[in-house]
Amino acid sequence: MASSRMNVLVYSGNGSTVESVRQVLYTLRRLLSPTYAITTISSSALLHEPWSPTCVLLVFPGGADLGYCRTLNGEGSRKISQYVNRGGAYLGLCAGGYYGCKRCEFEVGDRKMEVVGDRELGFFPGTCRGLAFPGFVYHSEAGTKAAELRVNKTALAAAGGEIPDVLRSYYNGGGVFVDAETFKNRGVEVLASYTEKLHVEGGAAAVVYCKVGEGGAVLTGPHPEFAAVNLNPSSGGPEYAKTVDTLALDDKPRTDFFKACLAKLGVRVNQDEHAVPSLSRLHLSSTHASDVSELVASWYDIISHEEGGTEYIKGENDTFLLEKPNAWSMGSM
């Protein structure tokens, strides 16, 4: 990759979920800062702005891959495919994994849940079929489990660092990369496999690497980017709380595996994790105090109010707390 490629872009447009974007940003910032700038990219920016020359890694997080297709089929797919074929790297996590395959088969036969169809990117030249494990419910932790994965250490040996034999990873709705072993002559390597009985047929490939032109793609069924520290045990039933505890025990092997997957894509990974930088303040100021007051007043419809006078603006992926300190003197500053 050219040295000018210093941006890691996480797609946050239609199809992605706030939680999946939050989780992957947290983990990537711990593993890749300050070498790279990790930020989000909207569907509009992906379609209309020149992002590819400075992008070292494009990430599609969890969510619903139909949303990705509706927004990006055609021009978006062309730009992504061209970027990867010319030496870029694509990381597709759960929904992003389905989206990166030639075909998606999700809950075939279920009239309410079924999603079946060809996909334009086709980095994995076969089918991603789900659910790997039953019980998935949209916008719920009902189908969550700590899925055990067996790692193909040979395929990741060149990545360096510690590589676990097995690990348990957050799973909620992902698929199986059907008969992935049969695509070896087309640049596909299985990086990890499910060890438990699956809900669908087609082998047990949980994470695959695909050589794509001069670049590559890593596609996953589970969520190796999800850190237990960011999961709320009370957001599900008693079994979910146990799942979070189980994932916490395997946090190091999960992190080591995810590091190896990133290194497989040619991304330079920190051997020592960095703490996520604390949030900094954004200051709104003007030479005319009335201008600030008028601007804040124009935000009235988007400001939410809580008891005690707290005010905040909730964006698509971020929440901004409004602070109103006493007037500052420019001389004292």
Automatic annotation (TrEMBL):
This is Biotin-protein ligase N-terminal domain-containing protein. It comes from Cryomyces minteri. GO terms for molecular function: biotin--[biotin carboxyl-carrier protein] ligase activity. CDD domains: GATase1_ScBLP_like. GO terms for cellular component: cytoplasm. Residues 6-286 form the Biotin-protein ligase N-terminal domain. InterPro entries: Biotin-prot_ligase_N, Class_I_gatase-like.
